[in-house]
Amino acid sequence: MARRGKAVICRQNNAPVAVEEIEVESPHRGEVMVKLGACGVCHSDLSAINGTIGMPLPLILGHEGAGTVVEVGDGVTGFAVGDTVISSFVNMCGKCRYCVTGRPHLCDVGAKAIIALPDGSLRTRDAKGAPLNIASGMPLPQAALISCGVMTGVGAVFNTAKVEPGASVLVIGAGGVGLNVIQGCAIAGAGIIVAVDMADNKLELARQFGATHTLDAGKEENLVKTVKKLTGGGADYAFECIGLGKMVEQAFRAVRKGGTALVVGVARGDDNTSLKTASITFEEKTLTGSYYGSARPREDFPRLIALYQAKKLKLDELITRTYRIDEAAQAFADLEAGRNARGVIVF
Ligand SMILES: [Zn+2]
Ligand SMILES: [Zn+2]
Prior knowledge:
This protein has 347 residues and is α/β, with parallel strands linked by helices. Helices cover 31% and strands 25% of the residues. A six-stranded mixed beta sheet has the order 7-6-5-3-15-14, with helices on both faces. Strands 10-9-8-11-12-13 form a six-stranded parallel beta sheet, with helices on both faces. Strands 2-1-4 form a three-stranded antiparallel beta sheet, with no helix packed on it. Strand 8 (168-172), helix 5 and strand 9 form a beta-alpha-beta unit. The chain is globular and about 60 Å long.
């Protein structure tokens, strides 16, 4: 049965978002329909609105969701009506070389299916990938955050970098993803966690999420030098969570010999990074990326829920404000102004 619902839609870059009524087709074979209960307002949504991430318009926004299964298509065995689920914005086919070698976030199909269903078709123009079972009793706003920001940040620490206890870490950018990198490092037992941002409220949050030192990028004359001093010669790991070549260069320079710099932030398509070539040879540093926290959602989502339930993962503290869907434009304005750790639209 087709259903009607409200959606936040971007029809034009750099214009206010619209809240419109849409129709959602019934699930086809192998699909389920999910009634969203909460959806985080992520910086990637803002990047789609302002054109940093090029997306075909009109575009239904939102990819950090949690909700309840309301209808199942033919051939679905793993889900039943009433199941609570967290969405994954990366589709995972389970058959390609990346899926079968444990790196489903790099799935060949997923890359094609970021704005459609895996077969390329659309039911609502916003189908964003396979929902996954989660423990019932998990509050939906908190569950939604796991879907993108938490998975991306904590996953970069646990899965991509594999930060070990006692490590020294630099985190550039303390927004929705950066705060999760910081808390991931704290959970992993990092010794020194240096957080860098330009906004005082973000640096305050960084401390709350486990940063041992904070630096104001606007006031710091030589960021690399200061980080080297704090970490005794350079950080073991540096996480760039903004997506700016200039900051990637700083991250790379601030890691010690043999250290690893990871680019977690999503940069514009025309942004470049330049490195001193000789330092790549003599210092044996690694520069790599982390996409969606190298997520294996079926494995990682339950672990993140367990960490939250054990009071080790901060999710309540991430939600600065909740909004009604009609307040979507305000939610994006607050995001752009850096007022929230995370804003969540609750349905
Ligand atoms: Zn996101
Ligand atoms: Zn695949």
